[in-house]
What does this fold into?
Amino acid sequence: MVQANLTVLRLLEAYTVKLDRASREPCLSITNLRQTEQWNWYGEGDDMIWIDQDPNEWPPCLHGTGTEDYFNTAWCPTQAVSAPYHGIPLPGGPNWSGQISLYRLHIEDPVLFERSIRVTIEHGHANKRADDYASTAYWYQTEPHARFPALQTVDARLPVVLSDSSGA
It folds into this structure.
């Protein structure tokens, strides 16, 4: 069974997808929507994945070098990109302003977990960007499983309204 979990995080909070789920299937995929009033490259900010371990334990199982590498966009694209396992359907405005949507499908490089997984990506280097993030994670769920947490309220899931999403 495929399950999806939507987590919306407000400004200056670490972008986090946390799944306390049992799964032995080889798939974790993440889509990400970023909206900003700031301009300039959004790619800095380490990606970290804790697999079947305490999320307070350091270091995480996987510790990458940033959003641009996690989503395979280190070449700083400014146009829409669609590759088999990653892409940018919404590239944003001039100098990476406004809304940007990215996806990464772990098909050829599966992230396997049995008990829990926590995925975080900093908001810029050392969490110093004030962007609004929304994300969806997909995974194959084994049965039986623990009860899913309640969804956030609709108000908590709505994006922050920016005064000017053009970045000007």
Summary: Residues 67-70 form the longest helix (4 residues). The CA atoms of residues 8 and 158 lie 8 Å apart.
